[in-house]
Amino acid sequence: RPPEDEEEVVEVGWQEKLFSQFEVDLYLKESACQTPLDWQYREEIQKLEKAGGRKNCRIFTYTDHDRFTNLEELCQKVTDLDHEVPSYLVERMANVRRRRQDRRPVEASSLKSKIITWEPSEEFIKNNHVINTPVQTMYIMGDLGPYGKLGNREYENVLCTIKVDGNGVITVKPDFTGTKGPYRIELDGEKREVWEYTIENASAQVQPEEEEREQRVLRDLYGRHKDYLSGLVGTDFEMPLPGTLRLFVNGEIVSAQGYEYDNLYVHFFLELPNREYSHP
Q1: b/e string for 233-248 if b means 16 or more Cβ within 10 A?
Q2: Geometric angle at alpha carbon 72, from 182 and 98, rounded to 5°
Q3: Where in the cell is it found (predicted)?
Q4: Integer angstrom CA distances of residue 64 from 14, 45, 99, 135, 173
Q5: Beta carbons of 221 and 214 less than 8 angstroms apart
Q6: Average pLDDT of the chain?
């Protein structure tokens, strides 16, 4: 078949929904709609059909709210064992991405939990061992089915996974193509088709004025945070005299016994011998 018939270029925005042929066929059936999101997709697809159908062909997306994203994160294997049994930590980490980033932060004045837990239980330790940075995910997919027969789930392939965590870190896997050449996907079948695709960053370049404005905001934010921390720590520190060499030694008390009460703190002093050493 002519190569130009199978070449497709799509520009995708963050969490932008592009429907596949399978989803179009599915959500046009009223009986397949169960959740509010299903009904929303059905309405959007009906509008697309009235406007002449979807513009994309083989390339489509799954957003953070789609069932595919939940199942993909939950079913990922972490070892190469055929009968892998996920550990407690793996199961908990699979649920981290479901925590949305639009939660309001807890104000310092409304902190109700204790800062220190003196006798943590085993369950408490296991729960707090999980990195709970919220993550949002989207998948750019390719329907690599036979020519003219789109809409089969078995031919869906992940082309690119994009994740953004609560700290603003963006992860693109695989990375932007750049000068490395296109990525290849080989399909098992009678014809053993080979597909090639590239991933490019299509984001608009930030204007110098906007970048400078952002830097000023960040500097102001960091400056206020620094002042806040300085206010908490204070300035009552003894400074060494000019030309004086001072040595700091950090130590730790690992055990103590014979004290009358619990939860006490200790002042201890280290007295060094007043001697002078000469080195050759």
Answers
A1: eeeeeeeeeeeeeeee
A2: 120
A3: Cytoplasm, Cytoskeleton, Cilium basal body
A4: 10, 19, 11, 9, 16
A5: no
A6: 80
Is 221:212 a contact under the CB 8 Å cutoff?
no
In the chain, which ranges are continuous DSSP H helix?
Answer: 21-27, 36-50, 67-75, 88-94, 122-127, 208-233
Q: Which of 160, 102, 108 is nearest to 136 (CA)?
A: 102
d(CA 86, CA 78): 8
pLDDT digits (tens, 9 = 90+) for 193-223: 889 999 999 988 888 898 899 889 989 988 9
Tell me the pTM: 0.62
SS3 46: helix
Q: Can you tell me the distance from the alpha carbon of 189 to that of 203, in angstroms, rounded to the nearest whole number?
A: 37
- Which residues, 6 or more positions from 147, have their beta carbon under 8 angstroms from its beta carbon? 1, 5, 6
pLDDT exceeds 90 at position 244: no
DSSP letter, residue 78: S
**What type of residue sits at position 275?**
R
Query: Is the peptide bond preceding residue 174 cis, with omega within 30 degrees of 0?
Result: yes
d(CA 207, CA 115): 44
How far is it, in rounded angstroms, from Cα 138 to Cα 17?
9
Instruction: List phi, psi (to 5°) of 18.
Output: -115, 120
Task: State the pLDDT at residue 110.
Answer: 44
What share of the chain has pLDDT > 90, as a percent?
30
Residues 6 or more apart whose Cβ sits within 8 Å of residue 162: 14, 137, 138, 139, 140, 170, 171, 172, 173
